[in-house]
Amino acid sequence: MSGVIRLLLAEDQGMMRGALALLLGLEEDIEVVAQVGNGDEIVRTAAEVRPDVALLDIELPGRSGLDAAADLRKQLPDCRVLILTTFGRPGYLRRAMEAGASGFLVKDGPVEDLAAAVRRVLAGERVIDPALAAAALSAGPNPLTQRERDVLAAAVDGATVADIATRVHLSPATVRNYLSAAIGKTQTRNRMEAVRAARQNGWL
């Protein structure tokens, strides 16, 4: 099996995960050594199977693929990370690059391109969807601070200020200040519009 690329696949939709594993496994130089459906399992499983490349979805139960990518780069620096997502959002691309990912692709491409991207990131190249790269450049950086993102993330389900304050361990007054700042930066009218705008841009 010399020269075979060991791949970890993280995808929460069972049918998509199985299809990707099957199609990539047909490539002579790629072996899918692990499949996980929960973000919390990524780093632990990777530590066990030692993949060459981790192919990660972003929106997973538990930790997101972006958070897991950052952990992988710290704990298994020889493992290349390739993000594969349905959501081609400029903010996601920026966060993926900041987390140390070597590539970022959207799921609408052919499997041959995905296999080629796996080989390229292992060879040390950076592989980014061209249209998304252009969009990320025009969109500019994420204007929200980490605390503002934390507060908006806690507000996703329509939680009250008191609920948010409990979740993020801040006072209600401080939460209101962060929400107000986030609403201003996203140029929206209320917290739920701010949440939607932040998610659409990939800032959350």
TrEMBL record:
Recorded superkingdom: Bacteria
Gene Ontology terms for molecular function: DNA binding
Coiled coil start-end: none
Matches recorded under SUPFAM superfamilies: C-terminal effector domain of the bipartite response regulators, CheY-like
Keyword check for DNA-binding: yes
Key words, A-Z: DNA-binding, Phosphoprotein
Residue stretches making up the HTH luxR-type domain: 137-202
Matching PROSITE patterns: HTH_LUXR_1, HTH_LUXR_2, RESPONSE_REGULATORY
One GO term of the biological process aspect: phosphorelay signal transduction system
Domain called Response regulatory: residue spans: 6-122
Residues the record lists as 4-aspartylphosphate modifications: D57
Protein name: DNA-binding response regulator
Lineage: Bacteria, Bacillati, Actinomycetota, Actinomycetes, Kitasatosporales
